[in-house]
Amino acid sequence: MPPVLYLIDGHALAYRTYFALASAGERLQTHSGEPTAGIYGFASVLMRILEQDRPDYLAVAFDTGKTFRNDMYPAYKATRAKMPDDLRAQIDHIRQIVDAFNLPRLEKEGVEADDVLGSIAKQAVEHGLGVKIITGDRDLLQLVNDRIIVNLAGNKLSEARDFTAADVVETLGVRPEQVIEYKGLVGDKSDNIPGVPGVGEKTATSLLERYPTLEDIYAHIDEIKGAMRAKLEAGRESAFLSRDLATIRTNVAISLDLEKARANDLNLPAVEAIFRELEFRTLIARLAKLAPGYQPPAASAAGGQLSLFGVPITQVGQSETFANHYSVVNTPEALKELQQALAGAECLAVDTETTGVDPLRAELVGISLAVVEGQGYYIPVGHRTGEPQLKLDEVRSALLPAFTDPKLPKYGHNVKYDLLALRRAGLDLAPIRFDTMIAGFLIDPASRSLGLKDMSEDYLNLTMTHIEELIGKGKNQITMAEVPIERAAGYAAADAEITLRLVGPLRKGMAERQAEKVFETVEMPLVPVLAMMEQNGIALDLDFLKQMSTELTNRLVEIESEIYRTVGYHFNLNSTQQLSDVLFKALGLLPPDPRKKTASGHFSTSADILEELRGQHPAVDLILEYRELSKLKSTYVDALPLQINPDTGRVHTSFNQTGSVTGRLASSDPNLQNIPTRTELGRQVRRAFIAAPGYRLLSVDYSQIELRIVAAMSGDEAMRQAFLAGQDIHAATAAAIQNVPLEQVTKDQRRNAKAINFGLIYGMSSFGLSRSTGLTLAEAENFVKAYFAQFPGVRRYLDEVRKQASQRGYVETLLGRRRYFPNLKSGANPNMRAREEREAINAPIQGTAADIMKLAMIALPGALQQAGLHARLLLQVHDELVLEVPENELQGTAGVVKDIMENAYPLSIPLETEARSGISWGELQPFA
DNA sequence: TCCCGCGG
DNA sequence: CCGCGGGA
């Protein structure tokens, strides 16, 4: 194999990784607020290449200013979004890193990095080298041939992949050398290359299959029929110009001194200094491993310095390389050994393999355990491969003592899942002391990479096998039960082992961010409570839903034909785009606010727009009714029965503790936190949620908990007095603003005051307020002014929160749950800034309410048991708890629940609750 | 993927 | 403001 020259496209890679990290929710920055996502992305890819590929030669190309393409076509890249300012500033750091690695920088005035890469690549091939180009820019694919491959970054850092000529054909449908012809036809929106108007991807690939180049197409233009031919003829000039723009030059006068590109003499202290300055801690750790083991390519055959188990890090978790470090427990002897290990254990990490994603339906396939780092156990119990495995009964009695040992703390990743799966198999797990997913969430609530695989990369720098490598994906997916034990074991044991290994770094991470208190007093104790609620589930009145569905269908059919009749023709009512055309083109209605665009360029048809169009055409009212009914039918009435668990006959929602950045729970499968309540018809759906025979549903909700929290946290006297006096807070607000006695507040005044109170909680602007109230912007501004004049403490509090958010970079709830706002510190653009300021105001209010509710939920089961009551907690809807209560215990239970909720976390303002009960969620009556 | 709409 | 889900 010839030596290989690695060429990195510096800008494209920084750009791509910047957005990859941003879209993954990472807001990378240093302590002082300097954004680093682009640098980090670039540096980690560079490190990965040095560690894993050991390139013979490596150089990095950069763009410089305007290029000859702008002379050819002034609009070139004119529409491309300007590079974000904070990324631009990062490019210089990237250049420094390249220098510190002693790698050549390739740049030339007047040409793009693409052209530099193309030219150098061509020269290298002529010298007999292989070339690999690392970029984020698909255009480079045109350079691929049998000596040049391109590694293209994906939407996530881990999704980069190599493209050979065959890969290009498979992905784009054309050969690499045809990429420019393809661009000539299709153009490129992001570079503002026009192409041939009207020719899309499909047309272009099929044309290029028959005629390999533009020249061939136009030479045979008479073989092409109809409209396509006309389009091609009209776009002829544009096609050739576009192709020229898209063509990467390979004859740029630039040269590379290969000796300088030998990737073997990085200036370690310089790199480390830069990484330290940028606070790339994990990269520094990798550096230490890289430097001593790094040999000139000729002598690098020994290798092996990068490993944890003596294998390259990419292979950890794959069974063949993990083989010495896990045991399959499928004999009585092995089980005995495991029991002995458990007896001496100080902690126990647990993971389960099941046949599905719903823990209340899936079957248990195997249990993984780890008690020390570097060693894992896999206990198969449900493999359907005919291989020997222990009986579940034996496993259960062997494990139960340790699993329920009060002195043995249990760890897991999303451990609520495993708890439920184990319970269904007759096991249990307590006490649960550490959930790595929740810990990761508290360290960064905005993180979208809380999967075990992601966290393993982020915190341990270990790449794990993905489950799809075992069970496949799509329609050929099998379940874990069909995977041979030996193949499953390495993967499964690694899950428990990695979980165990994550605990240390996560504790440290939580300590740095002072998240331990919320973790230990709120989130971890909540896990078993939520598991219990999910297990309980809630009963549905199926007959009622069936009848409702029929009635809705009938009415929908009526409305639909009525709409088609008034409009004059048929169209797809459920397509918002078609609807927009019908209303604003065919019917000629004027969009009330023509600025209200949608991303696809259509006018919005949202309910508030339609609301304004009422009366202008009979179809409008009908559409609004249609929308309401079809939403109800598809989302609730027809969907809920499908979610009933056949074993229990009830629906078991899943509560996610890591779903909401503010600390609220999120409910899914089905979401029982958005069952309608605001309209009469919607409320009907709630009637389908019923109590079991002999039971009643009891609902207790906090009244105005968020405003009470504002009053307490801000200490605003006027607001506190209103609450202490037990006044209707919205009316009291209106009275204060309008300066009228409380009794004289009109409905309108109260409604506006209510809107501003809500706006307050949501950090809303005058603009938002005017939208939600129908006041003019000026009126809304005056209203806000009057509000703050009456509640000066609230204003001070809001200013304080904003200041804290921008100075410290985070805000926190009363219990210390934090939400981070790195962009406020670094002064991002005004839009983002305003958005984050609103989020910063909302987070402590909503988050404190969420914390208090969680504390109540944790305290409740013990209090009920203490009182000898048998109520079951079923649902939490942010400020409401729903329980199923034996009829004769209603009164006592209501008292306990109210007491627990009202005293969960004492504020300087009393928390009040309201209890209601009934046989269904839809017809609850206040308690006597 | 976007748009819309349900809840708090 | 924060979510989840249906449908094109």
Automatic annotation (TrEMBL):
One of its GO terms (biological process) is double-strand break repair. One of its GO terms (molecular function) is DNA binding. SUPFAM superfamilies: 5' to 3' exonuclease, C-terminal subdomain (SSF47807), DNA/RNA polymerases (SSF56672), PIN domain-like (SSF88723), Ribonuclease H-like (SSF53098). NCBIfam families: pola, PRK05755.1. Residues 682-889 form the DNA-directed DNA polymerase family A palm domain. In addition to polymerase activity, this DNA polymerase exhibits 3'-5' and 5'-3' exonuclease activity. SMART domains: 35EXOc, 53EXOc, HhH2, POLAc. Belongs to the DNA polymerase type-A family. This is DNA polymerase I.
